[in-house]
Amino acid sequence: MFLNNLNTIQHNIAQAAGGRAVQLIAVSKNQSAEKIEAVLQAGQFVFGENRVQEAHTHWAHLKPHYPDLCLHLIGPLQSNKVAQAVALFDYIQTVDRPKIAAALAAEMQKQQRFLPCLVQVNVGAEPQKAGILPADTVSFVAQCRALGLDIQGLMCIPPFDQPPEDYFKQLAELAKAACAPVLSMGMSDDYVQAVAYGAHFVRVGSALFGERLN
Ligand SMILES: *Cc1c(COP(=O)(O)O)cnc(C)c1O
Fold first, then answer.
1. N or C: which end of the chain has fewer CB within 10 A?
2. pLDDT tens sequence across 156-206
3. CB proximity list for 64: less than 8 A, separation 6 or greater
4. CB of 205 closer than 6 angstroms to any ligand 1 atom
């Protein structure tokens, strides 16, 4: 039964964390409603979604029934989805460019819903990946805060084809420099290493739910 994965992952996190608080984010993108509900019933209330529309389909009807639910946006946000994102999500992990920072700040004012945020850092400086370059991170965090965004920390997705440890270390150092200490890093293949390097949030999808649909 796939729910055994939840216990295993929680156990691995606790062991690597050595008493430090680390939050598992169950990444429910491309997973079935049945599996999502089973994980909820097992007492996991923190979930991550990549796309606003899919998140709405998965969660809009469940949210009113689960006051402890906390939904993290972990995928790129488009300007035309900002209003829906601010209404639905509880945490935005992917502030990745000035335009979206300004749109989020304005929309949070409008809805009077001030969500905690992370800045996404393109730690590998990969052209195809979203995120602020490491060298621009400290000034971008300051820019976001000047707009009124509550930037609590940094998020990254290291290059797939390299060991992640140096990138985790780099993100932790950048977070310190930016006075934005919360770290979201680590996925199915490397969440244990990420915790060892100081992650506060790990984002785990396939190791928890099994392979994604489609
Ligand atoms: C899909 C995704 C994850 C989860 O990936 P797994 O390898 O299935 O654990 C984590 N973070 C982000 C940003 C993702 O897009």
1. C
2. 999 999 999 999 999 999 999 999 999 999 999 999 999 999 999 999 999
3. none
4. yes
